[in-house]
Amino acid sequence: MPEGDTLFRTAAVLRRVLLGRSVTGARGRPGGPGLERLVGRTIVAVEARGKHLLIGFAAGAATPALTLHTHLGLHGSWHRYRTGEPWRRGHQRAVAVIETADAVAVCFDAPTVALLETRALAIHPILRALGPDLLAAPPDVAESLARLAHPRRASMTVGEALLDQTALAGLGNVYRSEVCFIERVDPWRPVRDVPAETLARLVETGARLLAANRERSQRTTVPDALGGAPGSHLPRPQGGRLWVYRRTGRPCRRCGAAIRSAPAGTLARRIYWCPVCQPGTGDRGIDPDALPAGSQLG
């Protein structure tokens, strides 16, 4: 699933080619929102909120301003093309198409595509419930910590809580594993058992990683590629751009122990950790020593 840094870059690219332009053509998937209503309108805003993308359109002569809301889910993406340029994915996968005189923006495979009156964004149930965006300048760490400390999250594991977009917006499956590793936190530990100062470090490190990667096409969390921060207190590994994500059974870049992984949360997204650097995980997850030779996991 695209994370906050990916949406930040997507918004930046689309903003350069769409902002201030007039829509010459628009369409969506059959049975979807009537995007043809956007033709003739001027694009006045392109912004990311956590993992959500919002494209704003000016009001018409007798119609209110509108906003196209997309959430990319696990497999969605936005592409930008020049007029007449071949698409890199099949046209049947397009769920939203916005055309201007010299560019075409196409959203493929997104599960959420909605056309809303812009004035209704403030009461939209999902957008209104979002926690602070960790890519805001500056991110509201205090509010994120207050939301993490809410009683309804007390029994959640810290690994699950970091993905809760109503607590803090922008972190996804890659970052929750990497952040917990960098800060030596057991991702299976209940939030109620994590000291406040440790939660603060997790949030602050997550925000720094998102900011460090928002202009990068290849995400990295290791200090060699980040100029020494965040995580600059860690030893500098040789090669590799991530510490633990998708490294099941491979040696930890810090201590050499075998990385473990297991599905976590309601969506069963796999979390990765080092049982030595993040003590307390016990026997959860995959024991790499028990894997058949040649097994590929993670």
Summarize the entry for a quick read.
The protein is built from 7 helices and 10 strands. The protein has helices at 4-18, 125-129, 141-148, 158-161, 173-182, 196-213, 223-226; strands at 25-28, 43-49, 52-57, 66-71, 77-82, 94-99, 103-108, 112-117, 260-264, 269-273.
Topology:
Elements: H1 4-18, E1 25-28, E2 43-49, E3 52-57, E4 66-71, E5 77-82, E6 94-99, E7 103-108, E8 112-117, H2 125-129, H3 141-148, H4 158-161, H5 173-182, H6 196-213, H7 223-226, E9 260-264, E10 269-273
Antiparallel strand pairs: 1-6, 2-3, 3-4, 4-8, 5-7, 6-7, 9-10
Determine the mean pLDDT: 89
CATH architecture of the largest domain, by name, is: Orthogonal Bundle
Strand portion: 15-25%
Terminal Cα separation, in Å? Answer: 15 Å
What kind of assembly state do the chains in view correspond to? single chain
Number of helices: 7
What name does the CATH topology of the largest domain carry?
A: Helicase, Ruva Protein, domain 3
Helix content: 10-25%
